[in-house]
Design goal:
CATH topology of the largest domain in chain A: OB fold (Dihydrolipoamide Acetyltransferase, E2P)
Shape of chain B: globular
Distance between the termini of chain A: 47 Å
CATH superfamily of the largest domain in chain A: Nucleic acid-binding proteins
CATH architecture of chain B: 2-Layer Sandwich
Number of helices of chain A: 1
Strand content of chain B: 25-35%
Oligomer: heterodimer
Chain lengths: ~180, ~280
């Protein structure tokens, strides 16, 4: 917890002059607003731990205002995440797939997609036969509404693509 | 740099350092890595080995005992250990080069340090900055906590780049085991070498007075208590050696892994440690 908000530690650098006190230079991401903060702490200083848990949940649907997820432990318990929690992964949400939901005091504050998702192509320029080895690329629109660039020319509507959610880039054709 | 290149660079560097000292008639020694006593320095924690004592954080006391017993100028290359120091520029075990020159003062030793570094990194000018230039005006010192000062110092050292810098004129309460400057006792005859923002070496025109040593050890123990650290008994054989007489000398400790890191343009210590998986 930093200034009342739950944060995740991105980097923690140990700094110490040979004959001096040790410090930790820490980079945090504020889980509520996504901002990155840098703070330096004396060795031995402490912060309150945030009551934050990451659990796997299945994405059900959106009603336009909330995105609904369900626990996968058989309890069928559901949570509704506001847009701020799904902002970074809306492009990769596919119904019935499992995502990591970060709960702070049982409130969903962040949703993290798997590193790779497989999504269907709903729109792209027609495929060019025989151009499988090298050559150009084109954009493609996926079933979630996301548009990705750098898709090979041989990809057709209806193909399932494997996409890296960290970079938003095409990885391979899954099947089709 | 691949593994074979890194191993060769380290071996060649150690060879060049040994040749450097052989040419100057400085004798290599190998003092125990595991000793019954350790340092009182409040900001250095030792690794205890139950039933034996402590892994040495530097060979300083053992080498000074040799000097007090009549050793000539000596150097040592070997592992030293620091509890809970791990990071981009830290590892709990690292290789230290430490040497002592009979009859030298800090100025003469700084000259030699610059020459040794040139053997490893190639020729280069070394600029000199004072502690005060780095941390700013100390007239409000009474209100500035030591931890705040250490942080300012650490960050100022990181900004000393590119290039080679000697930091001099440490305040008297950060003398460690350096004598105070005879012409200006508000500063210590202590220097550090910073290269490209990385602390490389720390040296002293050595304090000889055994009573002053005892006073500084007692002050260390008070500060340890304030900081909630483990109490450390002063090293009695070391104090006995000082009473028998440490000859006038200057000494310096230099981090070999960090020097190799700079020599191979790496920015993490991990990249020079001799582990096959990197």
């Amino acid at each position: 917890m930093l200034e009342g908000d739950p944060c995740t530690i991105l980097e923690n650098e140990f700094v110490k002059p040979g004959k001096g006190q040790a410090f930790n230079r820490v980079k945090f991401r504020n889980l509520k607003n996504g901002r990155v903060w840098e703070r330096t702490f004396k060795s031995g200083e402490s912060l309150e731990g945030a009551d934050v848990v990451d659990i796997d949940m299945e994405y059900l649907y959106t009603d336009g205002e909330f995105w609904h997820f369900m626990r996968t432990d058989g309890s069928f318990e559901q949570v509704a995440a506001a847009e701020s929690a799904v902002a970074d992964c809306k492009d990769w949400l596919k119904e019935q797939d499992v995502y990591q939901v970060t709960l702070w005091n049982d409130d969903p504050i962040a949703v993290t997609p798997p590193n790779f998702v497989e999504l269907e192509v709903t729109d792209t320029d027609p495929g060019l036969k025989g151009d499988t080895a090298n050559g150009g690329t084109k954009p493609a629109t996926l079933s979630t509404g996301a548009t990705i660039k750098g898709v090979p020319l041989f990809i057709n509507i209806g193909d399932i693509l494997k996409v890296d959610t960290r970079t938003g880039e095409y990885v391979s054709r899954a099947k089709g | 740099m691949n593994l074979a290149q890194r191993l060769r660079l380290r071996a060649q560097t150690l060879g060049a350092i040994r040749a450097f000292f052989a040419a100057r008639d400085v004798v290599e020694v190998q003092t125990p890595v595991l000793g019954p006593a350790t340092v009182t320095d409040p900001d250095i924690e030792s690794i205890a080995v139950p039933g034996y004592g402590f892994l040495q954080t530097s060979p300083e006391y053992q080498m000074k005992r040799l000097l007090s017993a009549g050793a000539p100028s000596i150097y040592q290359l070997g592992p030293v250990f620091r509890h809970e120091e791990r990071g981009r520029l830290h590892n709990p075990e690292f290789t230290m080069l430490e040497w002592y020159r009979l009859g030298f003062d800090d100025q003469q030793l700084m000259q030699e340090v610059a020459e040794l570094v040139a053997v490893v990194l190639g020729p280069g000018n070394v600029q000199t900055v004072t502690y005060q230039q780095l941390v700013g005006d100390l007239s409000d010192r009474g209100n500035v906590q030591r931890s705040e000062l250490d942080l300012r110092f650490a960050e100022a050292c990181e900004s000393l780049q590119p290039g080679r810098f000697f930091v001099v004129d440490y305040p008297a309460d950060q003398a460690a085991l350096a004598r105070l400057r005879p012409d200006n006792p508000s500063v210590a005859a202590r220097f550090e070498l910073v290269i490209d923002g990385v602390e490389i070496a720390n040296g002293y025109w050595e304090l000889l007075d055994p009573t002053e040593h005892e006073r500084r050890f007692a002050a260390d123990r008070v500060r340890r208590k304030t900081l909630g650290r483990m109490d450390v008994e002063p090293d009695q054989p070391f104090l006995a050696a000082l009473r028998s007489g440490l000859p006038n000398c200057a000494g310096v400790a230099l981090g070999i892994d960090r020097l190799l890191m700079l020599a191979q343009n790496a920015d993490r210590l991990d990249e020079v440690l001799q582990r096959p998986e990197i």
